[in-house]
Amino acid sequence: MPLQRSQRLPKKFARRISPDTKRYVKRCMNRKTSHRKEKWRRLKRRIEVWRDGFRKSAVRWTMISLIFIGVVAFGFLLFSSAIEVREITVSRLSPRLDIEEVQDALSPIFGRHLFFLSSFEIAGLLRESIPDIDELRIGKTYPGTLHVRIQLHPLVARLNIEEPDSAGSSGTGSSIDFLTKQGIYVATTAARDTETLPQFSIVDWGVRPDPGQLLIQPTFLERMNAAELTLLRQFGQEVSRRTVYLRAQEFHLLVDQKELWFDLRNPLEEQMERYRTFLKEIGFEEVKEYIDLRVTDRVMYQ
């Protein structure tokens, strides 16, 4: 039969609850609540312990995996024949740079292991073949590409190499002769915007210089430039021709169809001071051909 709906007990059957019973019931309810809280605290502690253990284990296995991958990668780079130089790309920052010359210079490194290829070795090969390199950058792209970026020294002068026994010029075939900032002799037809460069006449050489050879020391060039600049700023005289005597270590500057003779043995300041004294006492108009400023205690002219 179906259950009947619950009803309150009649008052005559209801007993009064004593204070001790109330305290007992309350104590039992508090104990159940504390047990429930303790249960949740234990579960939370277990979860935290498991999480910390999982984190430590994950970190440990991650480190082991990274070390293993590093060892495998290093072994691959060390022993694999796939990491070899198979291609060399050259970035030419100077129009006169010969790409074929660069490739010939770097031909010994083809097939070499790219990982163990030193930048110093590459730079040595290039500078031995191309002595006027100003800036050199080397990069690698694995597995087999080498990148080379080359900047040459700027050109500072056009050269007219005269034969010792004649006043005529002697060129190098169809190429044009130039001088770099570091004094290196260059013969090329690929140079651009060289019309405004000053021209040097090279005479008094013992053995004819070859392209790529150090022709004039940088200190020599600095002395010539300083002399030319002093003549322009202090005396208002512009140089129209420059003649370099290699063995004698002197240079002649043509000013208003008259030559001024300088050398490297005496300080430039003393030679300019002699020239200043000469202009005050004698005058530039009295000179027909040259003024010799090389002698210490006098100025000779003709």
Q: How many extended strands? A: 12
State the helical fraction: 25-40%
Strand residue content: 15-25%
How far do the termini sit from each other? 152 Å
General form: elongated
Which stretches of 5+ consecutive residues score pLDDT under 50? none
Helix count equals: 5
Main β sheet profile = 9 strands, mixed
Q: Averaged pLDDT, please?
A: 83
| Element-level helix/strand string | HEHHEEEEEEHEEEHEE
Rounded to an integer, what's the Rg over CA atoms?
Answer: 46 Å
Strand-pairing-aware structural class: alpha/beta
Q: Which assembly state applies to the chains in this document?
A: single chain
Adjacency order of strands in the biggest sheet: 6-5-4-7-8-9-10-11-12
Q: Explain this structure to me?
A:
The structure is a single chain. The protein is of the alpha/beta class. Helix content is 36%, strand content 22%. It is built from 5 helices and 12 strands. It has helices spanning 19-79, 99-105, 119-129, 218-234, 268-281, and strands at 87-92, 133-141, 145-152, 155-161, 176-180, 185-188, 199-203, 241-245, 250-255, 258-263, 290-292, 300-301. The strands form 2 sheets. The protein has a 9-stranded mixed sheet, covered by helices on one side. Helix 5 links the parallel strand 10 (258-263) and strand 11. The protein is elongated, with a radius of gyration of 46 Å.
